[in-house]
Design brief:
alpha/beta; Glutaredoxin; two-stranded antiparallel sheet; 4 helices; globular
Length: 155
């Protein structure tokens, strides 16, 4: 599968953004952070989601799930508005049963926020965009406060 092409929201340049990479994707022209949306499956999940330098918003979904299709545009909008701060990783649970089992998915959509592979927040079921934004912001704020209180954490 080829790397997706993302249009830079700041300058409009098209950039290839790999599914798995170290660091944060930035525009080749203006160097602004780019939205990072990737698909993962049982084989690629560790590299795409757990090894990311950024917090990861995982969307565990299925193509037949109506609420999943409703939530998807809101999640992609969050990836755009949080470019450089969050990576959105979409996992089709029908094609990736091991990931679904590992995270004890009993309903979809199930959303997770991961920090270096550790689940720090979980949301099951569809919710309006403003609720998802607040949930993500709270998770990122909690993560930031945890990291700043650790020895060697950023202030």
């Amino acid at each position: 599968m080829s790397d997706p092409v993302v249009v830079c929201p700041a300058c409009g340049r098209k950039n290839r953004v790999p599914s798995a990479a170290s660091g944060v994707p930035r525009c080749g022209q203006c160097h602004s952070p780019l939205p990072w949306v990737a698909d993962a499956d049982d084989e690629t999940y560790a590299a795409v989601a757990e090894s990311a330098a950024l917090p990861v918003l995982v969307d565990l979904w299925a193509p037949w799930c109506g609420p999943c299709r409703i939530v998807s545009p809101a999640l992609e909008a969050l990836a755009r508005s949080h470019a450089g701060r969050v990576k959105l990783v979409k996992v089709n649970v029908d094609e990736s049963p091991r990931i679904a089992q590992r995270h004890t998915v009993q309903g979809i959509p199930t959303l997770l926020v991961l920090d270096r592979g550790e689940v720090i927040a979980r949301q099951t079921g569809a919710a309006p965009a403003h609720v998802l934004r607040q949930w993500l912001e709270e998770a990122l704020t909690e993560l930031s406060s945890q990291n700043s209180s650790k020895p060697g954490g950023s202030p």
